[in-house]
Every structure is written in C-alpha cells, then in structure tokens.
Amino acid sequence: MPEPSPRERFRAITRQPESRIDLAEAALWIAAEDSPPVPVDSYLRRLDQIAEVVGPVVSAARSDVERIAELHRALFVEQGFTGNRDDYYDPRNSWLHEVIDRRVGIPITLALVYIAVAVRLGFDVRGISFPGHFLVKHVGESPVLVDPFFGCVIEQRDCAERLAEVAGPEAVFRPEIHLRDATRREILVRLLSNLEHIWLQAGAYERALSACDRILLLIPDAPDALRDRGLLYERMECHAAALADFERCLVVAPNDPHAPAVAERVIALRAGARRLH
Q1: Which residues share a beta bridge with 144?
Q2: Model-level pTM greater than 0.90?
Q3: Can you spell out the DSSP letters for 24-86?
C-alpha cells in the first residue's frame, strides 16, 4: 500500500481527542504538504535532542523562576531561536522544520518549538492566541507569560499596550478573553491562517486553497474559512464549488457580519449559472 500523504497524516492526527493532538507533529505535516519532503520523525527527534541538551541545566535550577530563566537562556541564547524581523512573511517562518533548521520564525512557530521543548521537560505550558502576536503561558500559582518571538517574559500591562497598538487605543484589555488558553486545534488554525494570508498576498491561490481546506478539517463549517475558500474558488473560476461554500456559509452563520456580502456573491453566481444555461 502507498504511504499516507501529508494531508492524510494531518487528518489522522487532528481527528484524535484534543488532549492527544501532537502540535509539533501536526505542524510538521502541514509543512510536509507545503514544502516536501519533510522527514517528520527526524524533526521530532531534533526536538527531543534539544530537550535533552537543555534538560540537565533546567532541572538543576532551585525554583520555577530559575527553571524558566534557564529554559530561556538555553533556547534563546545557546540554541539561538529568535524572531525573524528581517523577513517576517517568508513562508519558511511558518514551516516548523525550517524554523528548527534556521532558528528563526514568527511568534506561533517559535511558540510551537517552545511548547514542544517545555512539555518534554515537564513544564505545564499553554498557547495564547493574543491578537496580532502569539504568546505562551506557564501555568501555576503565578502564571508566567512568554513572548517567544522576542525571547522574554512579559507582564499583563505589556499585553494591554500591545492590544492598543493592534486594535486601537479604545480597545479594552480583558485577560479572561485575550489571555485565555488556545485549544490545539485553534493553534493549528492560526498557523494555517498565516499561511493562507501569505499565499494570498503572493497570488498563489492553489496554495491558499490548500490552507483553507486544512482549516476546515480542523473546524468543519468555520464561516470565515468557508467564505475565504469560496472567494478562492471564485477567483479560480470554480464557480460551482464557490457557490456551494457561500451557500453553506449562509446556512451556518446567517447573522455573520459578512453574510450580506456572501449573499451578494451567491446571487451573482446563480445569475451567472443561469446565463450559461
């Protein structure tokens, strides 16, 4: 029998219960579809090896604060992981194997490395889908927020300032909303959404469509993904597929703010189909 494709591997991982989804492996299968070949098992072993190198120093620390400091020194100084500030939208920043190789990435992929290594060392860490900039949180009596892009611990007041930069000065910072734990599926959706936007900007519509397809594997009937995929199908002149996605979008989210625009596309596509007949 032929080997399962990266898409099939990704589907199999993400069909598991939330607690059993291996984020690093799922992210590597995303990369394997976009930038083959990717020896996924080899890169998972690379993460094991990083944890093995970091482990003795971290475990020798006398407090949680010192353990986190040693983890950061090991990852961000000795291992050299850092944010790519020179070419943020390079797609390689969104492919986990490239981030492991090149030691540069964007917030979400550096967070994936951070989480993978930290979990291997026994830390309880969670991803935080903060607007505009993905974060990591160490869970405990006094939670610690980490920005893997800049390799530093941040405070809630920093988050309030960042929210104002992203959403405007009128935005109200609400920790229970803006700092809530992201599910593993939400993290993978955010990674794929980044890739979708990169490919859209590049005019690579088939690759953007592939990202949408995988988002809908994670969250079937997600209105935004259905709308985006419909628009992509329309650009690619796959009108029947576009119409099906737009119609489904209106069924699952009739009150969505974008529903009127989607309804206009449905009317236009139906009219076009009648003219063809």
Answers
A1: 138
A2: yes
A3: HHHHHHHHHHHS----HHHHHHHHHHHHHHHHHHHHH-SSHHHHHHHHHIIIIIIS--EE--S
The span from the first CA to the last CA of the chain, in angstroms, equals: 44
- Region label for 233, one of left (φ > 0), alpha (ψ between -120 and 50) or beta (otherwise): alpha
Helices 205-218 and 23-34 pack at an angle, to 10 degrees, of 150
Tens of pLDDT along 4-26? 999 999 999 999 999 999 999 99
Q: Domains of the chain: which residue ranges? A: 6-178, 184-276
pLDDT digits (tens, 9 = 90+) for 106-131: 999 999 999 999 999 999 999 999 99
**Could you tell me if 115 and 136 are in contact, meaning their C-beta atoms sit under 8 angstroms apart?**
yes
Q: How far, in Å, CA of 246 to CA of 248, rounded?
A: 5
**How far from chain centre, in Å, is Cα 262?**
26
Half-sphere exposure of 160 (CA within 13 A, CB side): 9
Q: What is 184-276's CATH number, 1.25.40.10, 3.30.450.20, 1.10.510.10, 3.30.70.100?
A: 1.25.40.10
With H, G, I as helix, E, B as strand and everything else as coil, classify residue 100: helix
Three-point CA angle 250, 256, 261, nearest 5°: 70
Please compute, for residue 179, the number of CA atoms within 13 A of its CA located in the half-sphere on the CB side. Answer: 24
Report d(CA 186, CA 193) in Å as an integer: 10
